[in-house]
Amino acid sequence: MCSLEKRGHVFILTLTGDGEHRLSPEVIAAVRSALARAKSESSVGGGRGFALVTTAEGRFFSNGFDLAWARAGGSPSEARVRLGSMVSLFIPLVSDLLSLPMPTIAAVTGHAAAAGFMLAITHDYVEMREDRGVLYMSELDIGMPFPPYFLAILRSKIANPKVLREIVLQGKKIGASEAARKGIIDRAHGSAAETVEAAVRRAEELAARNWNGEVYASIRRGGLPEICRAVGLSDETEEERQKLLSASKL
């Protein structure tokens, strides 16, 4: 399902196994648990100078929500209820990533579709494998409307409206080299191993800056207001801001 490894000041969260890493309720819960562990361990370590890399084994980074699990409910109405539950359960996972007190890097080593695409670009940085794998929003092709918070993520992370149109209104499958040219990801790499190595290297460089993690998370949230509103993250109070300021180097 997933594992969490700590290498120095870098946490590596890996979706394990050779499957599609579909985001069932069980997988979502496991990923959230791993993020909570990383947050807790970074706090014990002083709350400064950590980073997280998320990657996956096999051909897929994540192929989105577990539609087979949804259909296993039997009737079409029950399938819709089950799908709706995954859509709702994924919201706090996005919130967890936005609130995580450290830089986050996705190492996309295979296909990332629909909710898997959202999982990748919710990270601060995206490194992607060039020789295999695409980014793809499949909703239009399968006749499924976008959850509003998906569109908030896409609008916040993809600045070019023509690129956004290709993704949401054409269902275009985009490889790593094209995704890098269009600013969807940061860099393309020749293989899965090179992608993970690049992500870990970036994580180590960022962790070495020894930033206050809570301040980092505060600034991240401030820079992504539309996503934060869409997933129900409340604005920081003046008391919270003053608390962060008191921990500064002023």
From TrEMBL:
The keyword Transport does not apply. One of its GO terms (molecular function) is delta(3)-delta(2)-enoyl-CoA isomerase activity. It catalyses: a (3E)-enoyl-CoA = a 4-saturated (2E)-enoyl-CoA; a (3Z)-enoyl-CoA = a 4-saturated (2E)-enoyl-CoA. InterPro entries: ClpP/crotonase-like_dom_sf (IPR029045), Enoyl-CoA_hydra/iso (IPR001753). One of its GO terms (biological process) is fatty acid beta-oxidation. Belongs to the enoyl-CoA hydratase/isomerase family. This is Delta(3)-Delta(2)-enoyl-CoA isomerase.
